[in-house]
């Protein structure tokens, strides 16, 4: 069975390029998923044409379709589009997602879906009102490596009883030498490490310490520290401690000031531990399992050649094809749960944005 989905890409930046790379590689491999890129929405036509050229979006790789470049408003009104991938900075997501949904488009919106929980709630309300599929693009949840790791840990119990998780997403961003108008420092753009990259360690704690999502999630409590820069007034260093009701704990960190450890995830159990490695801690492609004596007992590598966005794109295609309005792996309630946690962390540490 072939599933065809007509995409618009809203935002012509790096994250959109990585997403498009996977769609086109999928098309090159002639899988059962036909991801057709119909439109590139961006601030000007020249930028859109450059995006098409640089990402090699040719008719030969795109089912004989050459995408058009459109303004955001033109994209919203384009009747040939099934679903919009929103790859703009997160402070723009609220208005853009609602505009797509109100114009009859399904939406896959990059994380964080909004700046705070109340905005996310509104987006999901609009999606349901208009009968449109909507999902936060937490791509990490859809990697085969995650499915395999959970199978080894929670079905085969290779590391015994799970007790503790360390998860980090950090990089040395030379913050001091960036202008205050930089996306990394600009408070009006909802900058800071928590929303931009801290969401990933939180996501790993949700994936690896709880087998349930959204409304069925296991209860947990959290405490946190953010270091707020005195000049740009946003966080560039975050530490979060989580404790689930069954006693499992997680230490989660993010930073734009220092590089993170090679093993960005470490999951510890009574009979061993797991380490995950990647050039990008959001990209769950490689893990090793070690026994109690430190001997490696299992290794998994995703050598598919995809960046990893294809897994969530295929999941979206399946759900839309089957008439679903949300995804069971990343339901609306899970997005709201994580957004609520980040709201609490910011409140605990005195970090606010205009959207609050």
From TrEMBL:
Residue ranges the record marks as coiled coil = none
The record, for Pfam families, names: GFO_IDH_MocA, GFO_IDH_MocA_C3
Which UniProt keyword terms apply here?
Oxidoreductase
Gfo/Idh/MocA-like oxidoreductase N-terminal domain span: 5-135
Q: Specify whether Oxidoreductase is a keyword of the entry.
A: yes
* EC assignment: 1.1.1.179
- Catalytic activity reported: D-xylose + NADP(+) = D-xylono-1,5-lactone + NADPH + H(+)
Q: What Gene Ontology molecular-function terms does this entry list?
A: D-xylose 1-dehydrogenase (NADP+) activity; nucleotide binding
Among Gene3D superfamilies, the record links this protein to: Dihydrodipicolinate Reductase, domain 2 (3.30.360.10), NAD(P)-binding Rossmann-like Domain (3.40.50.720)
**Which superkingdom does the taxonomy of this entry point to?**
Eukaryota
For this chain, the family text in UniProt reads: Belongs to the Gfo/Idh/MocA family.
Q: What is this protein called?
A: D-xylose 1-dehydrogenase (NADP(+), D-xylono-1,5-lactone-forming)
Top-level taxonomy: Eukaryota, Fungi, Dikarya, Ascomycota, Saccharomycotina
């Amino acid at each position: 069975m072939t599933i065809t989905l007509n995409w618009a890409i809203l935002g012509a930046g790096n994250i959109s390029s990585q997403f498009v790379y996977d769609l086109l590689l999928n098309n090159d491999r002639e899988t059962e998923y036909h991801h057709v890129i119909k439109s590139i929405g961006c601030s000007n036509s020249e930028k859109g044409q450059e995006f098409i050229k640089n990402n090699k979006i040719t008719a030969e790789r795109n089912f004989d379709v050459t995408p058009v470049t459109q303004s955001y408003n033109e994209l919203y009104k384009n009747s040939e589009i099934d679903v919009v991938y929103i790859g703009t900075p997160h402070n723009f997501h609220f208005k853009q997602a609602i505009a797509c949904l109100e114009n009859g488009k399904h939406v896959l919106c990059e994380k964080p879906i909004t700046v705070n929980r109340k905005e996310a709630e509104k987006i999901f309300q609009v999606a349901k009102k208009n009968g449109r599929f909507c999902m936060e693009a937490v791509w990490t949840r859809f990697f085969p490596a995650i499915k395999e790791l959970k199978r080894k840990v929670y079905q085969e119990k290779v590391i015994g009883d799970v007790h503790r998780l360390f998860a980090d997403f950090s990089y040395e961003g030379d913050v001091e030498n960036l202008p205050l108008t930089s996306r990394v420092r600009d408070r009006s753009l909802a900058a800071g490490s928590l929303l931009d990259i801290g969401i990933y360690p939180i996501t790993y704690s949700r994936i690896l310490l709880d087998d349930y999502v959204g409304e069925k999630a296991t209860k947990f409590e959290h405490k946190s520290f953010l270091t707020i820069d005195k000049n740009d007034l946003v966080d560039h260093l975050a530490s979060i401690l989580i404790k689930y009701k069954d006693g499992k704990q997680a230490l989660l960190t993010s930073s734009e000031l220092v590089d993170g450890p090679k093993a960005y995830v470490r999951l510890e159990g009574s009979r061993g531990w797991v380490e995950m490695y990647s050039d990008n801690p959001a990209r769950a492609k490689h893990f090793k399992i070690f026994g109690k004596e430190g001997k490696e007992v299992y290794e998994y590598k995703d050598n598919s050649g995809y960046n990893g966005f294809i897994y969530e794109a295929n999941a979206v295609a399946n759900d839309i094809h089957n008439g679903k309005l949300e995804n069971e792996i990343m339901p609306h309630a899970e997005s709201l749960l994580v957004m609520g946690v980040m709201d609490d962390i910011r409140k605990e540490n005195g970090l606010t944005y205009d959207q609050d």
